[in-house]
Amino acid sequence: HCASSALSFSHASLSHAAGSVNRGTLGFRKLLVVTVATKETDGFRRFLSSAKHFNYTVKVLGRGQKWSGGDYTTAPGGGQKVRLLKAALEEMKDEEKIILFIDSYDVVFASGPKELLKKFQQAQHKVVFSSESLIWPDRHLEDKHPHVREGNRFLGSGGFIGYLPNIRELVSDWTGEDAESDQLFFTKIYIDPAKKKSINITLDNKCRLFQNLHGALDEVVLKFEDARVRARNVLYDTLPVIVHGNGPTKLQINYLGNYIPNTWTFETGCTVCHDDLHPLTESEYPLVVIGIFIQQPSPFVTVFFERLLKLQYPKNRLKLVIHSQEAHHEPQVSSFLQDHGSLYQDARLVTDTDGAASRNLVFDMCRKDEDCDYFFSLDIEVVLKNENTLKILIEQNLPIVAPMITRDGRLWSNFWGALSADGYYARSEDYVDIVQGRRVGVWNVPYVSKVFLVKADVLRSELTDNELFTSHILDPDMAFCHNARNKGIFMYVSNMHSFGRILSTENYQTSHLHNDLWQIFENPLDWQERYIHENYTHIMKDNAVSPVHQPCPDVYWFPIFSDVACNHLVEEMEHFGKWSGGGVVDNRIQGGYENVPTIDIHMNQINFEKEWHKFLVEYIAPITEKMYPGYYTKCSSPLNFVVRYKPDEQPLLTPHHDASTFTINVALNSKGTDYQGGGCRFLRYDCSVEAPRKGWALMHPGRLTHYHEGLPTTAGVRYIAVSFVDP
């Protein structure tokens, strides 16, 4: 006997009759769905979920048995299904029973038994097979198929429905091997006029009951109805009850399964995103191995590690494996491990492999570690803003799940909605809606990268190959996803929460001391978070208490730089080291003569002119326009420089006008801590700003009214950043 089990999702309502056929009635209870599933795959669970939604009664054959029906996605096979079906039918006694025999790993129900039975009845035959436009596996039999006026001409063995005696007769002659073709067996019966007539077989030519996707992808679209979703065949204008991703259309059934029958609808949003969750309790946090991959010079690595520390998860349940190929980032990695490594159950650095090999190695560490429950893969360019990301992903209880992250302001993300014929990116119909958050849910997708969580059990049972990332033709990330797809492991991306973003690593210079300062163009949001004062944004909010002060007439004082920005700018200038002599002859400026010389370094000397101008346009111009209404500036600034004041070098600046429409003067260090004295006095108003705060800017008119002097620095070293801005 074959192993079998029946799963009944029937409720009392199913006892109602579903209309009559000939002399009898087709009651719901007469219908039995029979399928073969030797393994509980993700696809099988999806099939059962859709069956349960419509209250089908399902009998599963072959559970726990070894599959010996061949890999019939690429070559004929599937005979084992016929053998199991034949044995199961022999035990069934109710001759009025209607059997629906279908595949399950790549099948979803789009409607319920009532509609299915009604359409079966309308076909006016005892057995109805699904149809296909392509002949398989023996194209030499094409001429033997009856011609049809409209619709598909060829039989598909992935789904058929019929009365028990007729189905029994259909499979009675099966004596084949498990790896022989079920499709060929049924096709030969169908093209034999005597058998076809005796069993009373027809094809569902126009896909009213069954939709096979192979050869029909252009014909099938989603049809959104009230709080439910159907597949619609636009060629025949039909609404099939069963959708089958036969042959090479697994990704398309995955896409349709994100919606059908009601997984996601416009009215309800995601209906399954809170099903089968794995709630975390304080006492039993799973052990997670986090693999961190540094494979190219990347900006904001220090910030990455600061965020990692803030991840809301018990550190004694985390093991960190940092893989770095970049000597450039060695100081940041070492500093993190030295200062914080002991907080984790384990933290180590691996440097002896590269590319695919490094990922294979680190994934294998989790696979072989019997304590490892999950592997969390995290690339250094990921900006994980959501501190609960790891908890959220674990609670989703999925084999592979990624948090959706995007490149700021772009449609570029860490998942693909579809694949092209050669396995690269293709845009799915819903990709933009998902990326932009118009459709929110947990989506079955063909590709995830940069950051994702994998169940360790999946690595030990399905993805056992320790070279998952290795391929002669595919990049490592694509090779991994290719291997997961081939094993029937579903990969998901969640946009249920806002998780973070991906940094751009293009054009990342490594020639400076603090290379992140130069990222204002490539990663403007991260630059702002790192370098702009946390209170700056309050200035532009009309309803907020403004942090802008006016210590002297038409002199505005406001927060602009973070402490880190000030430190980095000073350190960058001292690292460059070529301070001017403070004389009136200055070949760096037009005309070569400086009326009021300072000891300084110009921004263009460290190749920071473009970045500084961008900073002025983005962050200074809006405040100028707010404080001096009616004045608009392009911040074309002939002079941008950092000045150094020291008692034994240049302690002060004599009274002068600036050669500017307005001047910006940013304090780069702290009075009392770094220096004594200093400040700025406006002579016309006899008004001084003597304790400039670090990171705060003074903005004042340059010519005519605001004659001013730099007050003496009496101890330490004072640094300021200055811009003379003209329209």
Automatic annotation (TrEMBL):
EC class name: oxidoreductase
Catalytic activity: L-lysyl-[collagen] + 2-oxoglutarate + O2 = (5R)-5-hydroxy-L-lysyl-[collagen] + succinate + CO2
Keywords: Dioxygenase, Endoplasmic reticulum, Glycoprotein, Iron, Membrane, Metal-binding, Oxidoreductase, Signal, Vitamin C
Main location: endoplasmic reticulum
PROSITE patterns per record: FE2OG_OXY, LYS_HYDROXYLASE
Domain (Fe2OG dioxygenase) ranges: 634-727
Gene Ontology MF terms: iron ion binding; L-ascorbic acid binding; procollagen-lysine 5-dioxygenase activity
Cofactor dependency: Fe(2+); L-ascorbate
Pfam families: 2OG-FeII_Oxy, GT_PLOD, OGFOD2-like
PANTHER family: PROCOLLAGEN-LYSINE,2-OXOGLUTARATE 5-DIOXYGENASE 1, PROCOLLAGEN-LYSINE,2-OXOGLUTARATE 5-DIOXYGENASE/GLYCOSYLTRANSFERASE 25 FAMILY MEMBER
Name under which the protein is recorded: Procollagen-lysine,2-oxoglutarate 5-dioxygenase 1
Species of origin: Scophthalmus maximus (Turbot)
Encoding gene, per UniProt annotation: plod1a
